[in-house]
Each structure stands twice: as structure tokens, then as C-alpha cells.
TrEMBL record:
Family named by the database record: Belongs to the glutathione peroxidase family.
Keywords: Oxidoreductase, Peroxidase
Gene name of this polypeptide: bsaA
One GO BP: cellular response to oxidative stress
PANTHER family referenced in this protein's UniProt entry, alphabetically: GLUTATHIONE PEROXIDASE
Protein name from the UniProt record: Glutathione peroxidase
Pfam family of the protein (one): GSHPx
Length: 162
């Protein structure tokens, strides 16, 4: 029986079903993203990780969110176009969701309960908070928005070797 993040589903930016159970046996990097944020250039680093490790079992899923400074105001189409045009993103992009508060997507409620932030807080504080998930669906760790995607390579390699 699937457990951990594999219990959750969403939709892709273009409205197709996105079932996390489809990625069982792969390492997941789940990120709440935004197109008009100081950390937006991290799309480049995320795409580089995807290009280097995607064929080896890493799945990156970006979840656009407009809860931090209104930095993701666009529609799904605008977001998809921006990511592709500016950063060549071809890793998975999910539908726009809330990642904190009462309306938070159930996946993010789960992620934040499993991997606490600074001083044990659950709430996501800003865009580009990253969650790394083991091949069995368990949350491995949470990384601050300031953590560059390239800085996750050692942890990703460790989880891929498990």
C-alpha cells in the first residue's frame, strides 16, 4: 500500500492528473515556486538538476504559489509560458496551490508536518522552500528558499543510492 507522499495527487499546470504514487521508487524534490520572486532564478538550478539527474531517478515538481508577496499572480498558462521561455523548464509543474493556511494543499500540510522549518515551525515562510523525498515516499528533509538547488546534490545522490 502506498504511503507518505504517494497518498497525494494534484493536477499539472495544463490540467492533467498528477498522482505522486506514479513516482514510487524515485527521489522527489518538491518546491513551491513563483515567477516574480528574488529566488525565481532558482528555476535555472532546478532545471540543471533535472537535466543532470532526471534520467537517473530524480523527479522535480514545482508547485506555483501566490501566497508570498503576490509573486505568482498569473494563470497556469502564463506561468507555464514564463518558466519555459525564461528558464527552459521541462520538469513537472503542478497547478497553482496554497502551501500554508487553512486552504493549503493536503500535500503541503503533510510535507510541513513531516519536515519542520526553523525553530520547529511548520509554516512555509517563502517561495522556493524545497522538500526532498526518499524513494519510499518518506520526507527526508526541508530546505530554505536560500538553499540553491545545486547544494542539494549530495543529499540527492545519497537518497538515490539507498
Amino acid at each position: 500500500m502506498a504511503h507518505g507522499v504517494y497518498e497525494f495527487s494534484s493536477k499539472t499546470l495544463d490540467g492533467k492528473p498528477l498522482n505522486l504514487a506514479d513516482f514510487e521508487g524515485k527521489v522527489l524534490l518538491i518546491v513551491n515556486t513563483a515567477s516574480k520572486c528574488g529566488f525565481t532564478p532558482q528555476y535555472e538550478g532546478l532545471q540543471a538538476l533535472h537535466a543532470e539527474l532526471g534520467q537517473k531517478g530524480l523527479v522535480i515538481i514545482g508547485f506555483p504559489c501566490n501566497q508570498f508577496g503576490g509573486q505568482e499572480p498569473g494563470t497556469e498558462e502564463v506561468i507555464a509560458s514564463f518558466c519555459q521561455k525564461n528558464y527552459g523548464v521541462d520538469f513537472l509543474m503542478a497547478e497553482k496551490v496554497d502551501v500554508k493556511g487553512d486552504q493549503a494543499h493536503p500535500l503541503f500540510k503533510y510535507l510541513t508536518s513531516e519536515a519542520k522549518g526553523i525553530l520547529g515551525t511548520e509554516a512555509i515562510k517563502w517561495n522556493f522552500t524545497k522538500f526532498l523525498v526518499r524513494k519510499n515516499g518518506e520526507v527526508y528533509d526541508r530546505y530554505a528558499p536560500t538553499t540553491k538547488p545545486a547544494d542539494l546534490k549530495a543529499d540527492i545522490a545519497q537518497l538515490m543510492a539507498e
